Amino acid sequence: MEPKASLLLYGTAWKEDKTARLTETAILSGFTCVDTANYPTAYNEQLTGEGIAAALNSGIRRGDLFIQSKFTPVWAHAKDKIPFNPHQSIEGQIVESVQQTLKHLQVDYLNSLLLHVPFEDDKDNLIAWKVLETFVPHTIRSLGVSNFNLSQLEGLYADATIKPTIVQNRFYKETRYDSDVRAFCAEHGITYQAYWMLRHNSEILASSVSNTVAAKLNVEKELAFYVLILGLGGTQVLNGTTDPGRMVQDSKIIGEVFGDEERLRELQTDFDEFRRLLTILST
Fold it and tell me: In the chain, where does DSSP find H-type helix?
C-alpha cells in the first residue's frame, strides 16, 4: 500500500556533505516525502540514502515514506560527473542509473522516478519512457517528468502506455507560473510539484496576499507562500530548508491548515486573490 501523499517533499539538492544529516532530520521532523536524483552536479544521492536509512533505524517505517528520484539524460550532466556509462544505449543508461539509485538509497523500490529533463531530441523522450515503464509497478511505483513544457508533456502523455502522474517544474514568472502545464495536470489528474519558489518570486513574497496569509497563520511569509501554492489544488511543494526548526514548523502548519476544512474555507478568498495575482504577474 502506498503512503498517503504529502503536500511537502523534502528537497535534497545542493545539500552536499550535509545531505545525510538534513535528510534524516527532515524525516524525523515530519516530512514523509523525499526528493533526490542520480545527478551528482546537484545531489548526493548516496548520502540521501544514508539519511533515509538512519531515519528507518530510528523507527520510521519504509511503507510510510514516499521516496522519489530522477534519471537525468547525458546532455544535462557535467561531463566529469556522469554516474553511468554514457556510451551505451538509452536503455542501458536508464537500467544502470536505476540500479545505482536503488543501491544509493538502500531500498528495493522507489515510489516515483522522474525523467529529470527532456532529451535534446523529443523522440528520445518516448524511447526512455518505454524503458522506464518496464520497471512499473514492482521496482518503481509511478513515473513522472521534470522541467517539461506543455508541448513536451502533451507529446509524451499521448504516446505513453503508463501515464505520468507527476510533473515537477519551476514555479516562477518566466514560465507564467506554468499556468498551461498546471491546467493540463488538473485535467489529467497529474500532481504538480513546484520548486524554485522562494528565490525567484520576490513580487509574490512582498504581496499583500502573502502578508495577509502570514498574519492569519502567524507564520513567516515564505511558509504563507507555500500555503498559497498548495491552495491552488493538485499541487505539492519542494521544501529544502536546512533549519530544523522550520522543518518542524512547516510540516506541522501545513498539516494543520490542510487538515482543517473550516480553516481552508477562511483562506478561500486568499486563494482566489492569489490566482488573480498570478494572472496579473503573468501578463
Answer: 19-28, 45-57, 90-105, 122-133, 150-159, 179-188, 202-205, 208-217, 221-230, 244-258, 261-282
**Residue 132 phi, psi (nearest 5):** -60, -35
Q: Are 45 and 71 in contact (CB under 8 A)?
A: no
Find cell 505513453 and name the residue. 160
Distance from C-alpha of 36 to C-alpha of 8, rounded to nearest angstrom: 14
- Give residue 243's identity as a one-letter amino acid code: D
pLDDT digits (tens, 9 = 90+) for 199-258: 999 999 999 999 999 999 999 999 999 999 999 999 999 999 999 999 999 999 999 999
The radius of gyration of the chain from alpha carbons, rounded to an integer in Å, stands at 19
Domain annotation for the chain: domains and CATH numbers = 8-164 (3.20.20.100)
Dist. CA 273–CA 92, nearest whole Å: 48
d(CA 97, CA 221): 38
Measured CA to CA, the distance from residue 233 to residue 91 in angstroms comes to: 35
Angle between helices 261-282 and 221-230 (to 10 degrees): 90
